Amino acid sequence: MKSGASRPTAERRAASARAPTLEALDMIVHTPPYAPARHRARAWIAHVLLATSLLLIPDRATGNEPGRDTAAPHRVEDDATTPVGRRPEVASPSLVRRIGSDFKNVFTTKENLLTVGVGGVAALIAHQWDDEIAAGSLNSELDEDTALDATFESGQIVGGGAVQVGGAFIVFGAGKVFEKPGVEVLGRDLVRAQIVTQSITFAMKLAFGRERPEDPSNTLSFPSGHSSGTFATATVLQRHYGWKVGVPSYAIAAYVAASRLSEARHYLSDVVFGAAVGIVGGYTVTLGLKDERFGVAPLPPATGWGLKLTWSGSCPPPSR
Question: What are phi and psi of 264, to 5 degrees?
């Protein structure tokens, strides 16, 4: 049985870990996308500080984490200070351990393999229109200062790492710092999705070495990181909150993907496969969610490829 004297010490350690997290949150939030280079560099340093600080804060759950399987958890010893009727705390796997499991599940989950297969076939089909679209009217870089250029200009920011990766850490950090379990769970899944998705995306960029449409000297075109990042976020949001949130989230992801074509940063096949990578990343980190309201997964029936639609009851959003 743990003594009560050890609890204040643990609380002080957690508080000391939260201090740099709050400073990093403030620096990231108050750094605009078009800030000078030195300010953006400080913001990225803040990202690293934020990530490190969050990993140092104890990751604990009460055993009632919404929508999660909590089989065989490690139970902390109860003592006389535990309120009557309250369940003893359950030690939750650390973020690092969860991410390690995520990378394993990416390549061992049937739904992911099917998604990659469908995405690969779709990218091969789209490849025949790559050059046509890159040289066509959708490419606003051929004639800048047009309505089309202005329409898709924001996609660079929305799908960028500062918003997708930084935003995920901000949500996770806010849940940790302000002790909001529902926000923390969502933020943790967003962080895991971005780490998995961006790692796979960057590895594929190095492996394929495809030239960008507007800059042959840049060989990081395939797949699109903006597309994969935004589709990963959309998938996590859909898995947590259903299609009421999923539909607008996927619409934003599609807008970002289209903006990569308009800005001549990617070919059509780049964004198509990038979307598949993002869906895989988002699905992987939410495998533990239960009672999914409505699900869509690729299905290879005997007569050809198709989609599997599932309905399994109500799925309330994580409690706050």
Answer: 60, 35
> Do 190 and 233 meet the contact criterion of CB atoms below 8 Å apart?
yes
Pairing label, strands 294-299, 306-311? antiparallel
Proportion of the chain in helix, strand, coil states, percent, rounded to 5: 60, 5, 35
Can you give the pTM of this predicted structure? 0.70
Q: Could you tell me which residues come within 8 angstroms of residue 9 by beta carbon, excluding any fewer than 6 positions away?
A: none
| End-to-end Cα, the chain, rounded Å | 31
Pairing of strands 60-61, 90-91: antiparallel
Q: What SS3 class is residue 310?
A: strand
Condensed to tens digits (0 to 9), the pLDDT of residues 5-64 reads 444 555 555 555 555 555 554 554 445 544 555 555 555 555 555 555 555 455 544 444
Dist CA 10 CA 145 (whole Å): 57
Question: Amino acid identity of 54?
Answer: L
